[in-house]
Please model this.
Amino acid sequence: MAKNPKHRDLFPGALEAMILQSLRLRPMHGYALVKHIKRVSEDLLQVEEGSLYPALQRMLREGWLKAEEGVSAKGRPTRIYRLTAAGERHLEQEVVSLERMFAGITRVLAVAKA
Amino acid sequence: MTGFRRLLGRGRRYEDLSVSILEHIEERTDELMDEGLPRAEAEQRARREFGNVALIEERSREQWQWAAAERLLADLRLALRRLGRSPGFAATVLLTLAIGIGANVAVFSVVNSVILKPLPYPDSGRLAALWLDAPGGGLANFTDGLELSPSMYFTFRDHNRTFQSIGIWTRSLANVTGIAVPEEVKAAAVSGGVLETLGVPPALGRWFTAGDQDPHGADTVLLSYGYWQRRFGGDRGVIGRSIQVDSVTREIVGVMPRGFKMVDYDFDLMVPLAFDRAHLKMAPFGYQGIGRLKPGVTLAEADSDIARLIPVWMDSWSNGPGTNPHYYRVWRIAPHFRTLKQQVIGNMGGVLWVVMATVGLVMLIACMNVANLLLVRAEGRQQELAIRAALGAGRGRIARELLIESVMLGLMGGALAVGVAYAGLRLLGSAGPAELPRLSEISLDGWSLLFTLALSVLSGFLFGSIPAVKYAWSRSSLAMGGAMREVSRTASAGRTHQRSRDVLVVGQVAMALVLLVSALLMIRTFAALRNVDPGFADAAHIQTMRIWIPDLLAQDPVMVTRTENEIADRIASIPGVTGAGFAGAVPMDGVDPNWDQVIVEHRNYAGGVPPIRLYNYVSPGFFRAMGTRFVAGRDYTWADIYGMRPAVIVSENFARDTWGSAQAAIGKRLRTFEGQPWYQVVGVVEDVHVHGVDEAAPVIIYWPAMLADPYSRTPAIRASRAVAFAIHSDRAGQANFIEQVKQVVWSVNGNLPVAQIETMGEIYGQSMARTSFTLVMLAIAGAMALLLGIIGIYGVISYAVSQRTREIGIRLALGAQKGGLQWLFVRSALALTGVGVGVGLGAAAVLMQLMRSLLFGVSPVDLFTYVTIPALLLGCAAVASYLPARRAAAVDPVVALRAE
Model:
């Protein structure tokens, strides 16, 4: 995925929320995760590998994910990331907070237009 | 996840991470291949799209790390590796630091143990030494203040309001008999209140009680821990046993714990003074007073409390019918208490601070040397650092790296320094001056180690900051200037960094000068002291010893004198002995037999009081054995002594002051008090510096060894029971000679142990101990400073030569003379040294004033010293720079010009 100047960078909290939600759907390995987000957002979002892996490690450290040995789509060994119970709880909080933020932004923008 | 577990599982985490990333890239590669790209191109593109793999992996790993600590650890490992690659540099630096820091730690340990640490008694801050001044009555001769009398003790004890407990004590020697070998041991005689004041409970048994201090009560004794171990093998059943002390049977009632000393006196036995209150007079003033202040009471309050009691004391006691107790009012006795610790440290405190300062200076010089070395090393890395700076390394990053290296050097040097300090302290313990108080308490403890750590880190920062600031600061100039210019063919090496090294060398030379000046001044002081005629001759061949004849061995005073006479005669008949005699004390042995007034016939003392003079009691032959010259008149004869003739010998200074000349003194008369018989001066001897050669020789009245007792109401004879023998012989000091002398003593009386057997040479040496100690310390420091300074100059010139090789080659090619070239470098070294000398002279002139009290016979701005030392330094600088200068001249111009 080449860097397309039309895409904005995701702020860190958003990236984590995306990853958690995606993994909640089903556990995935790193490459699959990137592809999933790109496909589901219909190419509106793209994840920099440079931010993905550090973010994954950070979330592993916080205890929201755990890593398991598994195989990739091509049958080669890799690590699969799975959501934990704590991760689910964090995700729920993050979603609520994000929705509130979006609601606020929408309202402010709506006023400006009128 | 706790941090600890995180650390342990890290390896697995890292593995997971790299596997994930690798697989990620592989998958993308496959995807690209599926789109039709060849494998190699697909891989390349996948990697490029991923980004900087190493960087991303590192940043991911950082999530698991405590970033700052990891960076620090990595830097440390790098620094260690780099040091390992230049072992010569590392060895030089570590050695320099080990010596510099080690010396400082050793001196700090001494200062800490002696001056800073409290005395080993509970709550020792409240202990006071009862020092009395008595400026009236000619006691200006007293350097140690007026000691207390037993009557004073009773008055002070009964009526004071400021002390919790108070007591007096004295040192003495005791004969212990009734055991295998009779021996004379060190004893401390204490009154009631002393043990309570010090407050240290006994290891075994009990303290003295009031009953033990009763003169008619039981006789008891306390043992010291050391004596208990040595003589009784640590037998716990020793309590209740009896030993003979000075022919008195005493019961052992207790043992004091290990390390307990009577203030600074390491005693073997402790006996009660057991004064008979009913028979006490006001005098004698011969006891040291100590007391424990009540909580919250200051020394000033105690001073005024006791001052109030002086008149009470004069009212309560008397020196006998017909004497006036209020006579002492003229003495103007005033308490001037000081803490016990101050008393113990005495005037060694000043010496120690001087030594600490000098060692500190040596440390600074060492740091400068190391800074110079580091600057040179950093200069060698100039290109590397310039490139790193160009690639984006922060100023702080480079500075931090340099600092880490130097702090690490400091710490490693500090670790080695602990060993050096330990060795130094062991050496001091075995060869140190006995005058150093609390010598046995000096040790390398936690404080010393803390000091080592602090000093190591501090010095690391100190010498590391110079190259760090230099190279991190001028980041831009690194790129533009020096480093890149190295590559240019037209210019020689930059001079900008030369200046900081020059400043360092100037500083080193200045400090070395100060140290060397102080060392030379001390050497001259020592020489001046040795030049003083002490009042005796051929000290190395005068053997001295002390004996004590207690009442029980010979009650009759005449018997005492006859015994001593017999001993002297028998000793004189030993082959090789050319003279023998005895007296109350030999010079410089620390004993003043007595002090009292002297009334000169026909002299009017109206309004004042006759001054107090030092007394000694001598036998015939004593002066001859000591080599003390008679300036006029004659020595005593045994007929004078046994005939109780009223003859007296005086010192030369007294004769001159009183009657104008030594000759004029013969035949004149003097006496002690009103109503006492007049004594006629029959001889005048030269002045003797009994209190050390750095003090004026006091006036001494030499009474006969046996005379009518001036202190007794009824006619009585006073004999000298405690005497020191002086024996002049070529064999003085030899073991078999000493054995012979002892046998002679025992042949006269088998129960007389012999003690304090030393030659006058040894006694003389001990009296110079404080000066010689300071001298040795300063000489060592000065030598180290000189060595370090020479190394510094050599290093600087050497480096300059290597940097300017191309320039030298050009000069030689253009026809410069080799001699001229050498002179070029030597001249620059001399110029540097000259500046350093100038700065150093100024500093020395100021600093040496602080050392005034230690100097004797030489001024702090002594011309000879201030000319010799600069000459020495310039000479050394010339030599140190000559070797590298010679190398410069030996450069082959072709080689030099070719090397790019």
In short: The first helix of chain B runs from residue 3 to 8. Chain B touches chain A through 27 residues (CB under 8 Å). The two ends of chain B are 59 Å apart (CA to CA).
